[in-house]
Amino acid sequence: MFVLVNLIGGLQAALYSALAVGVGVMVWRLVRRDPIQPAVSGLLGVGICALVARQTGEARGFYLPGLLISSFFALTAIVSMIVRWPIAGVIWNGINSRGMEWRENPALLRAYTIATGLLAIVFVSRVVVQGLLYDANAETWLGIARLAMGYPLLALALLATVLIVRRAESATPA
């Protein structure tokens, strides 16, 4: 919504429309009696992005928090691989309540390191591509890149993670 309205109506209209869509999603979830926590989180994120854009007076400011978050996740993934605690393994085994014994298995450690590397590539590529567009003040292309490199790219990395981990787990004796 922000990308389209900013292109057509300018920054103020884009900020108001992005916030209105966030409120609309929350109202929709309330009407359906769905949990509103995801909508509240989304609205908070949009609110922070809108605040940054409003304070900077530039549409590209809307994307700055996302760039900073991607930088943090990229750094976290890279450091976790360096210290041999790949974040994909920590999260996967935390979610599945399996403990940290996987770290003693070289095949699993390697699989989780590869999976974490894929996630690092996603976040680093976001920072590089979107950072260049941010520096070039190409807010429309920045918005398009953010959409394209958002959930679709992350979904591919997560799918690859699941396939890599399941393959390593099936090859590992119980």
Characterise the protein shown here:
This protein is an all-alpha fold. The termini are far apart. It has helices at 2-9, 11-31, 37-56, 64-82, 87-95, 106-135, 139-148, 151-171.
Overall pLDDT confidence: 94
Structural class: mainly alpha
Strand content: under 5%
Based on CA inertia axes, which overall geometry fits?
A: globular
Helical coverage, percent range: over 70%
What are its keywords?
single chain, 79% helix, mainly alpha, 174 residues
Write a brief caption for the model:
Helix content is 79%, strand content 0%. It is built from eight helices and no strands.
Strands, helices and their partners?
Elements: H1 2-9, H2 11-31, H3 37-56, H4 64-82, H5 87-95, H6 106-135, H7 139-148, H8 151-171
Helix pairs in contact: 1-2, 1-7, 2-3, 4-6, 6-7, 6-8
